[in-house]
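Support case: phosphoenolpyruvate complex. Customer-provided input:
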Amino acid sequence: AAVMPAGFDRSSPLGLPAGGFEVLFNISDISEIHALDAGACDGIGLLRTEFLLSSAADLANEEKQFQLYCEILKWAGGRPVTIRLFDLGGDKPLGGFGLEERNPFLGLRGIRLLLSMPTMLRIQARALLRAAALGSIKVLLPMVTFPGEVTDTRRIFEEEAASLAHRHVAISMPAIGMMVEVPAAAIMLDMFEDADFFSLGTNDLAQYLTAAARDNPTVADLYQQAVPALLRLIAQTVAVAHDMGKPIGICGDLAGDPEHLSSLIASGIRQISIAPSQLAAVKTAQMQAGMDG
Ligand code: PEP
Ligand code: MG
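Agent response - structure generated as follows:
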């Protein structure tokens, strides 16, 4: 039997932690939050900003982005809100990004695309720096592969913060973390000292581990079979993050599957971010395991 790490409730049948387990929401659409009570979650663990905007022009609209972030902060009522930078390209073609590539899932997407279009990145950084002055914001970088991408992005945030502060605009520097969804990043996690926190993206991680596209029904079965490989990699990654003293959570769909909750907890996961529609099933699994809330 597995050795139970410190902090676990040994009387619980599944060995679940006695407390300190956080459930946050993944949000892709502003209309979603109006139907939700913020009190039902511990905050937003993933705001997919590429789906908040309706046109390519919005990608250049700092004011519109700022207003959207403010609206979400207001809804969250002091709970933390993790906002992911535009994850464009691949399966998320707002503005036409990715569509012209032969292999968009393996192309210029996520943070690679943003760093290649720094004007767009700087606009989003300014909107986020301003919103961070008004609430608890964390910034999440999509599709990070190498540590330099985090360092370069952080430098851009620092430059924009300095120039806004120079103009006496109220700002705050948010924590900057990264998605762990590219295998090279998961394997080399200890190299990412520049990231303040980690969030495992099991949807893309499964896709890149199995070489099976997440949107291709022909290979959906392979993608499903990725769970054991994912769980092993997650356990290794969580252990490294703990050694580094950095927070790590999961925001991919695996986190909202009650079947795997006890495995994730046994790996040391203490924070999951799930689709709001998965909350009832996850809460039921938590209760059955004697770990309420
Ligand atoms: C993921 O890849 O697991 C993830 C949470 O992000 P997205 O589904 O938006 O790619
Ligand atoms: Mg992803």
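The CA atoms of residues 46 and 200 lie 11 Å apart.

Case will auto-close in a few days if no follow-up is received.
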